[in-house]
Amino acid sequence: MAVWLITGTSTGFGNELTKIVLENGDIAVATARRPEALAALAAQHPAAADRLLILKLDVTQEQDVVAAFSAAKAKFGRVDVVANNAGYGTLGEIESTPDADARAMFETNFWGAARVSREAVRFFREENPAGAGGRLLQFSSVSGFQGFPGTGYYSATKFALEGFSESLASEIDPAWNIQVTIIEPGGFVTNALKGDSQWAPTHPAYGRPELPAAAFKRVLIESPPSGDARKGMEVVYKLASLKQQPLHFPLGKDAVAGARAKTSSFLADTDKYASWSEGLERDT
Question: Any transmembrane segments, and where (predicted)?
Fold first, then answer.
């Protein structure tokens, strides 16, 4: 019976993952900025009342992060898996997005995730039973390895999280038995393009409907994603049980295709201009 601590559980991936954890007989520490939003989830799983702990957690507040882990230990004695999922998107051209909106998104998507990550690693190492370690699942996005028009600042938060997570994984002592996996979902049906996301007003210079950001916005609004969030989180639940987890995990056919295209393009550019790096060493 694994103990999961999941952030951002009021809607979307976090909500679905919490349900799956409970349905499989595990323990869920479900956290959200507004814990009252989880009343329906608790009502749907009355038999799991002793395996569900609902907590207030605003990832922008350090004290909330520490308190959530402390409460989990007080009730269940350990935390085995942390699903670092809380986040949101403000979309629009880079020139359209106010600095305040971009900074607020970074505060949640990057700094909030970093706070949870640091406490998770410390907790796995120092609070869990010796050698038990833990699994840290970092929820990034296909936009964390591929920038799309209209997603500049959102992509920047996820690119930052990916670099942070790669560095964190490289720093961990193998003896701690802590693994980090970056989940990179493609398009799934959640409320990401409803209440949890907003589009900045279009900058006058980008008003032509045929420009890339406008076209991308139409695609997102008029052609909803095909991924089933429930099925996606069933895969993530399965992933967490692997003895050896991957560092990167593109989730969904579009994410897999995007990862392959990005890698291919990167390697093609690298190979094409590799010779330009010859002879750049200092003369001795």
Answer: none
Active site residues: 140, 154, 158
Count helices and strands in the chain by DSSP H and E runs: 9, 11
> What superfamily would CATH give domain 3-256?
NAD(P)-binding Rossmann-like Domain (3.40.50.720)
Among 177-181, 209-213, 236-240, whose mean pLDDT is lowest?
209-213
Neighbouring C-beta atoms of residue 230, cutoff 10 Å: 15
Tokens of 148: 């799309």
pLDDT score of 119: 98
| Contacts by 262-266, CB closer than 8 A, 24 or more apart | 262/145, 262/146
pTM score: 0.93
How far apart CA 170 and CA 189 sit, in angstroms, is 33
Cβ proximity of 69 and 127 under 8 Å: yes
| Model pLDDT for residues 243-266, shown as the tens digit of each residue | 999 999 999 999 999 999 999 999
Euclidean distance between CA atoms 49 and 51, whole angstroms: 5
By 3-state DSSP, what share of the chain in percent is helix, strand and coil, each rounded to 5? Answer: 55, 15, 30
- What is the distance between the alpha carbons of residues 5 and 18, in angstroms, rounded to a whole number? 9
31 within 8 A of 71, measured Cβ to Cβ: no
Residue-wise pLDDT for 32-75, tens only, equals 999 999 999 999 988 888 999 999 999 999 999 999 999 999 99
Average pLDDT over residues 229-237: 97
